[in-house]
Amino acid sequence: MARAVTQQRKIANTALAWGIGFLIFFPILWTILTSFKTEAQAIADPPIFLGFDWTLANYEAVLERSNYGRFLWNSIVIAGGSTILGILIAVPAAWSMAFVPGKRTKDILLWMLSTKMLPAVGVLYPIYLLCIQFGVLDSKIALVIILMLINLPIIVWMLYTYFREIPGEILEAARMDGASLREEVLYVLTPMAIPGIASTLLLNFILAWNEAFWTLNLTAAKAAPLTAFIASYSSPEGLFYAKLSAASTMAIAPILILGWFSQKQLVSGLTFGAVK
Amino acid sequence: MATQHSRSAARLMMAPAVVLLLGWMLIPLTMTLYFSFKKYLPMRGGDLGWVGFDNYVRFVTSSAFWPSVMTTLIIVGGVLAITVILGILLAILLNQPMWGQGFVRILVIAPFFVMPTVSALVWKNMFMDPNYGLFAHLWEFFGAEPVQWMSQASLTSIIIIVSWQWLPFATLILLTAIQSLDREQLDAAEMDGAPATKRFAYITLPHLGRAITVVILIQTIFLLSIFAEIFVTTGGAFGTKTLTYLIFQRVLESQNIGLGSAGGVYAIILANIVAIFLMRIVGKNLDA
To answer: Which of B10, B20, B97 sits opposite A152 (nearest CB)?
Structure first.
């Protein structure tokens, strides 16, 4: 009897959860579906869900816009560059804080976190002015540096949390067995640290890819990434729904897939270890 | 245990990150403070000298200030209420035994990875457009007049869009917290005859307390500075001008740097008030 009730409950839970999950995912699904419609079918009344003539014309049209490739390339360079640069700077810092903690380590970590709280708009003009001064307004290098700086606290925190879980005894054991410092770093520490570095890389690439304050305000024709490209579709009024959908699908698909891989690290990464 | 040598090496390894962040924080902040005490109009005369606290007074007394504060509070409050309440319900649901839990989880967190300009435009055009949007079709189907979302219900629209983006975050964190709840405690309470509502109020909710606080604080910091969602939908029209957007307009659109900088200082103070509470919680966790 009790078993039957649980079974029924499980069926009800499953139905409800799948229904809600589908509802939440629907805007994304609808965007993907619309991207394969013709412009006329995209605004058909009543709306067509699946029974339309699937076409790749929108993708071709978006890709043919001579500059799409450049927006994509800018996104890759800005997100990738800022993440890699951030990791290079953060690894030694997180490393020393995790393995040689001092009296001030905790204060430094909290202070780093506090720089993340600085509202971007509060420093918009100074950054804008500095970019002009150094001649890097609307350049990829400026955004690589700025996005690196705004994500650096998260990168340090994530790496710190991972490194702290590497037991120090293992290092001592390696040293006892006569490993040199080079061997210790290369054969003992690196293999243990790589999963943590990889997931930090992933999450920060996603955050940088989607960043839409600095990328919108500091770029124009030359360095604009996909966030700005999509924003240029701001007022299609039913004219370009299918193309907007195709462009959107291409902008979010790679990140969606990367994101699903990083979902486990997301929680501790974005709460600075406050929820694990 | 660490030697003097390894201590100084550690300091050296930390230096680049610390110096960069220090520069990132101090240089622009000093400049914002500097400009906030000046009458500075790059397009109309440039630097027109020191004006004391004039900009601070003018920013607060301008007719746009209080509405922008109200708008900010409504958006932040609305999104927090929706994401936290729905997040708790969803987390509880996803924690129940079911088939395909991993798959549902993937569906639920997906919106978090969609870039803000995409989600804002997809919602604005394909759902909320009064002629071609799905909502218009849905309203017509039930014989109702389609809503002019972006003009008549502009704040509601923004709240819906931003909530959709942040619900996954709240759900995921609350789900993680709920999974650490002792199942036996709940089972024992159930056997003792405690109804589901009581089990929720006396066991689940207190257990979630800290996670809820963390969700509220982190989301508040991000929500105070939402920008793209307003930039590509209403452009600050129809009463959707938040404090962030007002400052953005003062600085880049009307090029009144002094006034905008004074506004920026207010925004920084506001964000720091929230930040202090978040840091306390995170700091406590570091000791553990």
So the answer is: B20
